[in-house]
Q: What sequence folds into this?
């Protein structure tokens, strides 16, 4: 092996996907400042962070679900259903704290239904959540129809659009930061996280090792439903509008963020740090394109392209690492075979 090949091998092994995402973030931010001077303003960054906070919230539990080898496509529909219920409860003069609790409870029940169907009947999560995606959105339209509710208490609407005092950070984004820390600790510093990696890597071995695989999966989907409902509440307050179609299509962006963050499609690997970096990257790219007056159709194409790239690029990197390991083993074998035998 030449010196150049050896250097390349060490570089490929050491450069993590999170480092690549961090570099892409810097490039995207620098490019945004060059393309449009408004990109670097405080007001724009406040809008940038606020505009993807609901997707960011849904991506956190979705990351854990994918690491465990499952998928949840119903997250955006749960968002819409929670938003619709919040609007109905507000119209009927239900106290807002109670209304919020009921919406969160509904989201948890939706997640429980997903988890129960998947675990009890051994159904693929892809098929189940495609079905519940339509079911939950249908119930949202039954609750609210085509109308919108916009008469929310001012203090709650102020939370949706307000910023933390003396900063440009939106209050809903601060909520995301807190939850991101919680999910990071769960995944990277707890036995639950180690169990999730084991389940995604080899579910049969995880089951025989004593991990309560089915219970954990149900809890993951309950958590996903709960946080998706929370995202629906935040979305409703941010726009002061409860609608049955709120969040339509958000599941694609959430999934793209998870895969772009380095979570393996087949499960068993991934980090919350990578997902947070990917969320910021997608937010910056969308913001730059919006400032450039790019049509929404182009934004959808960009999101789809990022989703494909998020699956393709990590696989190419993994293949490159495997080839380099194979070359190294062959070289070591040849060198060992060429050594003179003792005696």
A:
């Amino acid at each position: 092996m030449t010196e150049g090949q050896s250097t390349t091998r060490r570089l490929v092994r050491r450069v993590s996907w999170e480092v690549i995402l961090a570099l892409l973030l810097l490039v995207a931010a620098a490019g945004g400042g060059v393309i449009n001077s408004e990109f670097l303003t405080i007001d724009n960054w406040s809008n940038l962070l606020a505009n993807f906070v609901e997707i960011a919230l849904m991506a956190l539990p979705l990351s854990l679900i994918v690491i465990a080898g499952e998928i949840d496509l119903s997250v955006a529909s749960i968002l819409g259903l929670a938003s619709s219920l919040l609007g109905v409860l507000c119209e009927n003069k239900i106290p807002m704290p109670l209304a919020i609790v009921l919406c969160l409870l509904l989201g948890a029940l939706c997640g429980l239904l997903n988890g129960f169907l998947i675990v009890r009947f051994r159904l693929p999560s892809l098929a189940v959540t495609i079905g519940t995606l339509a079911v939950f959105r249908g119930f949202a339209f039954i609750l609210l129809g085509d109308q919108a509710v916009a008469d929310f208490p001012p203090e709650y609407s102020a939370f949706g659009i307000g910023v933390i005092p003396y900063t440009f950070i939106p209050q809903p984004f601060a909520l995301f930061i807190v939850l991101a820390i919680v999910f990071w600790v769960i995944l990277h510093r707890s036995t639950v996280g180690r169990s999730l990696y084991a389940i995604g890597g080899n579910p049969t071995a995880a089951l025989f090792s004593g991990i309560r695989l089915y219970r954990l999966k149900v809890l993951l989907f309950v958590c996903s439903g709960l946080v998706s409902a929370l995202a629906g509440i935040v979305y409703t307050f941010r726009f002061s509008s409860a609608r049955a179609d709120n969040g339509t299509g958000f599941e694609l962006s959430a999934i793209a963020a998870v895969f772009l963050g380095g979570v393996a499609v087949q499960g068993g690997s991934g980090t919350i740090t990578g997902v947070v970096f990917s969320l910021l990257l997608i937010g910056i790219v969308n913001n730059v394109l919006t400032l450039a007056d790019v049509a929404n159709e182009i934004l959808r194409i960009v999101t789809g392209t990022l989703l494909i790239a998020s699956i393709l690029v990590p696989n190419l990197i993994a293949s490159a690492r495997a080839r380099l390991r194979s070359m190294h083993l062959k070289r070591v074998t040849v060198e060992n075979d060429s050594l003179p035998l003792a005696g």
About this structure: The chain has 15 helices and no strands.
